[in-house]
């Protein structure tokens, strides 16, 4: 049964992407940012490395994420992550919590269907800058529901790894979804729109 959840999420996304007008138009950059984040199950998180031999250099790593359960209008816009201090990037974040997070429709069927290369601006991607913070007890339930609904395997990850829920605290947003360069969206604009 647990294996069906990711398939159901993928089916819902396929239906959303296949529906006419499902993807926001290029002039609605804030909505596009919300749409792309909610459509993605993972992203590339870049930190400043604290590791020996790499100290101070950019270091990117893939992380599963979720802003809410699959389905239209279910995303909060907050990228939640499930982390452990044993992970290299998390060790970087303990020294400097600043990071950037990139998500792209390249991981969805949309770009493949339209034969868009991941670098094609029409294969929208969003770059968030900000910091990673542990969620407080009142937000842990939301983070757990958001993540475990999309990544049910997480519930069985080793307890002795001391997993914790975190969120990406967004300070800057760049949207590349059309020709002509990046669009800047403020966090206020981003959180105020309906995805």
UniProtKB/TrEMBL annotation:
Which family is annotated?
A: Belongs to the CREG family.
Q: Where is the CREG-like beta-barrel domain?
A: 24-192
Q: Which domain of life is it from?
A: Eukaryota
- What would be one Pfam family of this protein? CREG_beta-barrel
**Keyword flag Cytoplasm:** no
Q: Which residues form the signal peptide?
A: 1-22
Going by the UniProt record, its keywords in alphabetical order are: Glycoprotein, Secreted, Signal
Q: Does the keyword GTP-binding apply?
A: no
Q: Which gene encodes it?
A: Creg1
Protein name (database record): CREG1 protein
Main localisation: secreted
List, alphabetically, the PANTHER family matched.
CREG1 PROTEIN, PROTEIN CREG1
Cell compartments where the protein resides: Secreted
Q: Name one GO cellular component term.
A: endomembrane system
């Amino acid at each position: 049964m647990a294996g069906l959840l990711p398939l159901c999420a993928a089916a819902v996304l396929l239906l959303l992407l296949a529906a006419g007008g499902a993807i926001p138009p290029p002039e609605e950059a804030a909505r596009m940012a919300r749409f792309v984040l909610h459509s993605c199950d993972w992203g590339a998180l870049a930190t400043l490395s604290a590791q020996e031999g790499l100290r101070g250099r950019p270091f990117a790593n893939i992380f599963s994420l979720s802003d809410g359960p699959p389905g239209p209008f279910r995303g909060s816009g907050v990228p939640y992550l499930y982390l452990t201090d044993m992970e290299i990037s998390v060790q970087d974040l303990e020294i400097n919590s600043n990071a950037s997070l990139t998500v792209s429709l390249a991981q969805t069927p949309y770009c493949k269907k339209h034969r868009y290369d991941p670098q094609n601006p029409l294969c929208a991607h969003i770059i968030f800058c900000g910091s990673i913070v542990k969620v407080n007890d009142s937000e842990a339930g939301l983070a757990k529901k958001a993540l475990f609904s999309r990544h049910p395997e997480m519930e069985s990850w080793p307890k002795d790894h001391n997993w914790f829920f975190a969120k990406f605290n967004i300070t800057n947003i760049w949207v590349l979804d059309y020709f002509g360069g990046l669009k800047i969206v403020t966090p206020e604009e981003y959180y105020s729109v309906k995805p």
